[in-house]
Amino acid sequence: MSEAAAEETGREIWIEKYRPQSLGDVVGHEAVTDRLQRYISQQDLPHLLFAGPAGTGKCVTGETPVLTNRGVERIENVVGDGDGFADPDGGLEVATFDEGDGFGFAEPSKVFGKRADELVRVSTRDGSEPTVTPEHRLLVVDGDGLSWTRAEQLQPGDRIARPLEAPLPEGDGRIEWIDALDGDRVFVHVTEEFAAKHGIPASQNNVGTKREVLEGVRAGRTDEQIADGTGTTEKTVREYRRRAADTDLDAVSTVCSLSYLRSLDASKETLHEHVERIQYVSPNNSRSRPVEPPRELTTELATLLGLALSEARIDRSRIKFYNIDETLLEAFSEAARETFGIEPKRGKQKDVPYRAIDNRTVVHYLRHCFAVLDDGGTVSSRIVRAPAEPRRAFLRAVFDAEGHVTENGILELTQKDESVVTLLSYLLAGEGVPARRKTERKAATNGTGERREYHTLYVSSASALSRFDERVGFTLPTNADRLAEDAARDVSPNHDTIPVQSAVSELCETLYLPKDDLLTGTLKSSNSHRKPSRRSNGWKPTSTESRHCRRRGPTGATGSSRYRSGATSARRRVSGRTGC
Question: Among 3, 28, 96, 99, which residue's beta carbon has the most beta carbons within 10 A?
Answer without folding.
Answer: 96
